[in-house]
Structure formats: structure tokens, C-alpha cells
Specification:
This protein has helices spanning 118-136, 141-160, 167-188, 196-203, 207-218, 222-240, 245-251, 257-268, 272-291, and strands spanning 4-5, 17-20, 28-34, 38-52, 55-60, 63-67, 73-77, 81-88, 104-105, 108-111, 161-162. With 292 residues, it is of the alpha+beta class. It folds into 2 domains: 4-162, Jelly Rolls; 189-279, Arc Repressor Mutant, subunit A (Orthogonal Bundle), CATH 1.10.10.60. Strands 1, 2, 3, 4, 5, 6, 7, 8 and 10 form a 9-stranded mixed sheet that branches. Helix 7 packs across helix 8 (257-268). The longest helix has 22 residues, at 167-188. It is globular. The mean pLDDT is 87. Pfam families: AraC_binding (PF02311), HTH_18 (PF12833).
Length: 292
């Protein structure tokens, strides 16, 4: 199975992640991957091409697509586009699971001129408004962002939740959930010292079996995945705090700033100090513009 498990970290201060799709310039392909979050793509300009479990889904401006947890999918952005993406952790839907750790929503392309479902237009409008409010960050945006988010969750569980599923689908879901439960624990305890042997014992696996799970489904070994989590959170801290690189390294489970820099460069192609300088440069430019 040639696909990867994607690590998803919510935006600072939010229970979900929202951003513009990274393939906005076109000529971009996001290879096959999966995650335990519910993902919504809303195309505001341009178009995208999705493949979900071998099914093809063209997506145009004014349309959105719901990707369910554990669905293997890829995204082809051959042309320029502006696409808002929302990733909702599965635990947000506790109390609405059809089975243990399982919930599914009506997938496929929603909206468009041929849509006969009035909820589709409402869903698309909610996603676009949610992105605009969060991106503009006007006074009170944090309250409005959360308000729109819960309105979105309400619409999903009342209008799009599928209540009848086949046993085959549940078995497949349980198969991938075995790893996702472990990676969720790692994301919650990444600042601590985590060992493969300790996690294997905690979740009832042998060291060898757990190591094989990471290689087969996450496509990386345990240590790389753990450092990936720490590096991702460190990146967020660099963008959202004024802490030193050394402090950020220690706050995110690294022994030193040198260790962070090594893994950071491997993942992002730049050093943490470069990102920090670029952040300061953009802040200075914005301050200069505001004085004009």
C-alpha cells in the first residue's frame, strides 16, 4: 500500500486546522495519503482534481468535497486555484460515532450549479466565511471563528452523517485506527521522553510489530515520526511566539537547538533561524506599510 499517514496539527488556539491549499500556484500533486481527521476542500477560484479510493472527483470554483477519516486520497492541482481547507479531528464528533471511533459523511463533490441540496450552498458558504473571518483577523474574529465552526459541525452531523455502513468498511477503519490511536497519544505527549518499547507495551504490541506498523502505514520509522511531530509544533511556535530557538527546542521535546535545527532543515529545507528572520522581516514591512 503506497500511501502515507499525514500528521495534522490544529491552528494555535483552535480545535481544528484551517488554511489555504498549498498547491495554489498549480502544477502540484499531493500524493496518496490518509489521516484520521475529516477534511473539507472548498474551491473559491480555479479547480482541483481528487482521487479518493480510486474514484475521480473534479472540483471547480463554488464546489467543495468532504474527505472522510481513513480515506486514501490524492490531490492534483494542475491549474492555479484558491482553495480553503478545513481539517477536523475525529474526536470532535464523539457522541455521534456510528461505531467505535467511526463516523462517515456523504462524500463526493457538493454544491455546483446542478446541486439540488440546499444544505450544500449553506455548507460552502460556511466554509468560505469561516476562512475569511479567520484570515482577516478583525476585532472579535476568534469568537466568530468558533461560532461558525460549531455551526459547520452541526450541519455536518445533522445533514451529512451516514448512519448505515457495511461491516467491511468498519473492519478497514479498525485496521487503520490501530496506528492512529498510537499517533494521537504521541501528539499529546510529544514533549515527554517516548520510547517505542514503552508504547508497544502500553498498546499491547511487540516492539517488532509496532515498528512494522509505522513502516507499513506511516511510511517512516517510529523515531522519524516522533521527530516530525516535534518539528511541526516547533514550527508553529516559531510563527506564533517570540521565544528563542533554544527555548522552543526544549518546549517541544528536543534536547537542544542543534537537534531541532537538524530535523527542521531535513523537513522544511531551511533552518529555524531563517524562518524567524523572515517572520521579523514581514512584521517590519507590515508596520512600515501601516505608517504610510
Amino acid at each position: 500500500m503506497e500511501f502515507q499517514h499525514e500528521l495534522i496539527i490544529p491552528n494555535e488556539g483552535l480545535p481544528f486546522k484551517i488554511f489555504l491549499f498549498e498547491g495554489s500556484r498549480g502544477n502540484y500533486i499531493r500524493e496518496k495519503h490518509w489521516h484520521t481527521s475529516i477534511e473539507i476542500f472548498a474551491v473559491m477560484e480555479g479547480e482541483l482534481l481528487f482521487y479518493i479510493n480510486h474514484e475521480k472527483y473534479p472540483l471547480h470554483a463554488g464546489e467543495l468535497l468532504i474527505v472522510n477519516a481513513n480515506e486514501i486520497h490524492s490531490v492534483h492541482a494542475l491549474k492555479t486555484n484558491k482553495t480553503a481547507v478545513i481539517q477536523i479531528p475525529l474526536r470532535q464528533f464523539e457522541g455521534y460515532f456510528t461505531a467505535q471511533q467511526f463516523i462517515r459523511f456523504e462524500g463526493g463533490v457538493r454544491g455546483g450549479k446542478d446541486s439540488g441540496n440546499p444544505s450544500d450552498k449553506r455548507l460552502i458558504s460556511l466554509v468560505q466565511r469561516l476562512y475569511n473571518v479567520y484570515a482577516e483577523k478583525r476585532n472579535g474574529y476568534d469568537f466568530r471563528t468558533i461560532s461558525l465552526y460549531y455551526e459547520l459541525l452541526y450541519l455536518l452531523v445533522t445533514q451529512y452523517r451516514v448512519t448505515e455502513v457495511e461491516e467491511k468498511e468498519l473492519r478497514h477503519n479498525r485496521h487503520l485506527n490501530a496506528l492512529s490511536r498510537i499517533t494521537t497519544y504521541m501528539r499529546e505527549h510529544y514533549r515527554e521522553e517516548l520510547k517505542l518499547s514503552d508504547l508497544a507495551e502500553m498498546f499491547g504490541y511487540s516492539d517488532a510489530y509496532l515498528s512494522r506498523m509505522f513502516r507499513e502505514y506511516a511510511k517512516v520509522n517510529f523515531k522519524t515520526y516522533l521527530q516530525d511531530i516535534r518539528t511541526s509544533y516547533a514550527y508553529r511556535d516559531i510563527l506564533n511566539t517570540d521565544h528563542t530557538i533554544g527555548q522552543i527546542a526544549l518546549d517541544n521535546g528536543f534536547c537542544s537547538s542543534r537537534g531541532l535545527s537538524k530535523d527542521f532543515r531535513k523537513r522544511y529545507g531551511v533552518l529555524p533561524s531563517e524562518v524567524k528572520r523572515e517572520k521579523k522581516h514581514k512584521a517590519a514591512e507590515q508596520e512600515t506599510d501601516s505608517l504610510k
